[in-house]
Amino acid sequence: MRSALVIGTGLIGTSVALALQARGVQVYLEDHDPTQARTAAALGAGTAEPPPGPVDLAVVAVPPAHVADTLAGVLRRGAARACIDVASVKGGPRRQLQELGCDLSAYLGTHPMAGRERSGPLAATADLFEGRPWVLTPSPGDDTEVLNLALELVALCRAVPVVMDADAHDRAVALVSHTPQLVSSLVAARLKDADETAVRLCGQGIRDVTRIAASDPAMWLDILSANPGPVADILAEVAADLDGTVRALRGLESADAQKRTGGTEGIEDVLRRGNAGRERVPGKHGAAPAAYEVLAVHIGDQPGELARIFADAGRAGVNIEDVRIEHATGQQAGFIQLTVEPGAVAQLTAELRERGWSIRR
């Protein structure tokens, strides 16, 4: 691949362009808002000038509602040897292209499973896709060259290719991406009119649950409008669980011993099913979750503290598997949670305490 045309210079499109430019591909940028394309170009994502002729690969990175029409235009004008889109829904655009009478031999639907709460070219990074799954949805009759160019793009972005059926993909992202967004927003919405005293008690748990609720509503309306059926199906199942949980909680506050017992069993059931589901979420490098230990270390909010604790862990010869920071409300301090192999706990604890760190297991 020597040249590419990226249509749509938001977070995903600009990140693709930055990754390709960094690896020697000449990228041309196009957007319905020329200012946004020029912004992406100023960031080093390519040029906002039109390509002099057909490019090797066109990447359509526009909102789902506009994917089919944009793809049809690219295919009809022969703008590229191959054309892909990166929309979060795959079945609908392909069916729409078929209805428009387009020759789909040069097209392949794809979806990089990466993103951020922020949108637009200024949020883009060349490493956004590194180590992330990138779904490819080939169909019988697709040109092998198109698949090869798509795989080359995934490799240049340092992502991990995953081949799926288009409709199976849409059901999968409804479960692991679209429904969590709505559930996060529903929980965060409870905070909108909550008493200030309650909000001041927010800890890491509520921050974790509501993190993605900060996402752009307009972007998510586009995504959910393109995949409403599968999302509604899963939310209906969640609603049934919620109804059962509400009944169980009402049972716990009942004076009837039998109802309290039923309530206890109901709550335990949903919590244990949650445990079992969480254990299936892939861990580090996509492998099965490993059994790690967590050390919580008190850390001040001063420059250099994070660098110091990582350096001290390095001196102990301990690899940090994961890290998160729990901020203390109203204080210039918090806890950094270091996830390590169980066998490294004693060594790391001793090293950090020797260097003056306060540790909570």
UniProtKB/TrEMBL annotation:
Signal peptide: none annotated. It catalyses: prephenate + NAD(+) = 3-(4-hydroxyphenyl)pyruvate + CO2 + NADH. GO terms for molecular function: NAD+ binding; prephenate dehydrogenase (NAD+) activity; prephenate dehydrogenase (NADP+) activity. Pathway: Amino-acid biosynthesis; L-tyrosine biosynthesis; (4-hydroxyphenyl)pyruvate from prephenate (NAD(+) route): step 1/1. It comes from the Bacteria. Residues 294-361 form the ACT domain. InterPro entries: 6-PGluconate_DH-like_C_sf, ACT-like_dom_sf, ACT_dom, NAD(P)-bd_dom_sf, PDH_C, PDH_N, Preph/Arog_dehydrog, Prephen_DH. Residues 2-289 form the Prephenate/arogenate dehydrogenase domain. Keywords: Amino-acid biosynthesis, Aromatic amino acid biosynthesis, NAD, Oxidoreductase, Tyrosine biosynthesis. Its EC number is 1.3.1.12. GO terms for biological process: tyrosine biosynthetic process. Belongs to the prephenate/arogenate dehydrogenase family. This is Prephenate dehydrogenase. It comes from Streptomyces benahoarensis.
